[in-house]
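Design job #97: recover the sequence.
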């Protein structure tokens, strides 16, 4: 609580709660673990007070009041659980459902829908609707990622407030009035702003759903793990939703979806579409993954012991002529282990800068130009990157005999020249989670875990060190990069 805020006490549902003068009653309740039903209020999008779901009984007030527009003061007595408050909440809910199609069995929001949840908690009334409902448009593709169902909308306007005030893209709007009112895409636009997926998160019902996720797996089969998005140097806090209970759902993919996780200092409530829908390249399509330790010439599958033994023998004599080309995808733990390995092997050439293969668009909301999460972590560990031009020059000149490529696809850095350049090295080791173009050009392939299969830390562009947790078991023989570096170092010594 900031110093200018005057503390006070409020009696809420019979309990004396700490608050400050002028704080909204719905926020006093939330801060103290009391759930007052609501649709339109969102801490980052304001409180228009239009859904009328958060009505509470206030001692001395002639009628129930909406708690999202009710500033509290000392001694106020409020109840969200009294007979009067509950009746008012039930009436509001009944209005919301008058024209709702009640198509829950075929709605993908089932299991995380504000209408379902509040009906079970605050509804359970006999419907008085005897007339035909007003029908609106369904299955509208609002943009590349989002589907709109106008009939299921409760007109809370969270989505339009998001596109007006956060993404500032103005690609959704409210049209018509009264019971004919509906949400639609702004004429001449599509919902294709770089943050469009957030409208699905803020929509409390099944009106806006995710094209990428809908009908793939029911939400109650998903497990959730705290993580950090590796899509750029911002490091948005996310929750990885994994599907391991029903492996035959979701096309066999183990990651169901990514959702933003609130962190006021990094990403607030939001994440961008690149990060949200980019997870397939990392962990979605297990078919794309490296799962076996391989020597490619002569081709043979090896045990970790055998491969690391062979590599240690080769590195021992050539440390000074070895270069490491890495990616900012490595964790702080990986960089620390690489540091020790490099000291033991005498490696002093490192290439990990974000070159054209790892840069993209930046904006003022979240997205950063460097499309990897941990360049700061490399710098903090004491690494300095040379440019990839220097690497290609020294390969051409025969100054480098060994190239150790970690989670980097040099075919994306050098394009058509990659094959010829790599052929100049006596030994190319590729270590990473995926079968990229690079994996085919190496002499050894070492399978590494994807970030969802390991614990670790990334340091974001502002220097914030953030922890991510293991959500899935590693595929095949994959191991975390730090462990491969450590095992190799042990063999060197
Ligand atoms: S589409 Fe969803 S977020 Fe938008 S107004 Fe309707 S219910 Fe609210
Ligand atoms: S802004 Fe960066 S870290 Fe955040 S979700 Fe997008 S890609 Fe991921």
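Job complete. Output follows.
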């Amino acid at each position: 609580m900031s110093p200018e805020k005057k503390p006070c006490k409020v009696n809420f549902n019979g309990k004396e709660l700490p608050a400050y003068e002028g704080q909204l009653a719905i926020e006093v309740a939330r801060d103290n673990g009391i759930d007052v039903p609501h649709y339109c209020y969102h801490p980052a999008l304001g409180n228009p007070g239009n859904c009328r779901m958060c009505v509470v009984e206030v001692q001395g007030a002639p009628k129930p009041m909406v708690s999202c527009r009710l500033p509290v003061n000392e001694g106020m007595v409020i109840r969200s659980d009294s007979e009067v408050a509950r009746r008012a909440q039930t009436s509001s809910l009944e209005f919301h459902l008058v024209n709702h199609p009640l198509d829950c069995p075929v709605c993908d929001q089932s299991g995380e829908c504000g209408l379902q949840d509040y009906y079970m908690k605050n509804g359970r009334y006999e419907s008085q609707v005897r007339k035909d409902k007003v029908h609106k448009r369904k299955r509208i593709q609002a943009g590349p990622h989002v589907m709109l169902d106008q009939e299921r909308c409760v007109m809370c306007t969270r989505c339009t407030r998001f596109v007006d005030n956060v993404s500032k893209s103005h690609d959704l709007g409210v049209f018509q009035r009264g019971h004919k009112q509906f949400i639609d895409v702004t004429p001449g636009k599509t919902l294709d702003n770089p943050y469009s997926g957030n409208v699905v998160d803020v929509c409390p019902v099944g009106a806006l759903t995710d094209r990428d996720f809908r009908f793939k797996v029911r939400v109650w089969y998903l497990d959730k793990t705290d993580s950090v998005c590796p899509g750029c140097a911002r490091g948005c806090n996310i929750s990885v939703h994994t599907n391991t209970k029903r492996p035959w759902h979701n096309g066999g993919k183990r990651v169901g979806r990514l959702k933003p996780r609130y962190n006021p200092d990094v990403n607030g409530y939001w994440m961008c579409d690149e990060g949200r829908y980019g997870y397939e390249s990392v962990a979605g399509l297990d078919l794309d993954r490296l799962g076996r330790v391989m020597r490619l010439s002569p081709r043979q599958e090896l045990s970790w012991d055998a491969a690391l033994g062979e590599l240690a023998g080769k590195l021992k004599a050539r440390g000074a002529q070895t270069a490491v080309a890495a990616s900012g995808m490595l964790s702080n733990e990986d960089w620390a282990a690489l540091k020790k390995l490099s000291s033991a092997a005498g490696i002093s050439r490192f290439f990990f800068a974000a070159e054209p293969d790892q840069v993209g668009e930046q904006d003022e909301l979240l997205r950063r130009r460097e499309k990897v999460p941990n360049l700061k972590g490399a710098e903090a560990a004491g690494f300095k990157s040379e440019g990839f031009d220097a690497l290609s020059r020294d390969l051409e000149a025969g100054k480098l005999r060994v190239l150790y490529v970690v989670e980097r696809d040099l075919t994306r850095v050098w394009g058509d020249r990659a094959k010829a350049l790599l052929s100049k090295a006596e030994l190319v080791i590729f270590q990473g989670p995926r079968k990229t173009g690079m994996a085919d050009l190496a002499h050894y392939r070492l399978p590494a875990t994807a970030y969802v299969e390991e614990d670790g830390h990334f340091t974001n562009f502002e220097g914030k060190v953030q922890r991510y947790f293991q959500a899935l078991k590693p595929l095949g023989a994959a191991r975390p990069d730090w462990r491969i570096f450590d095992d190799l170092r042990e063999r060197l010594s």
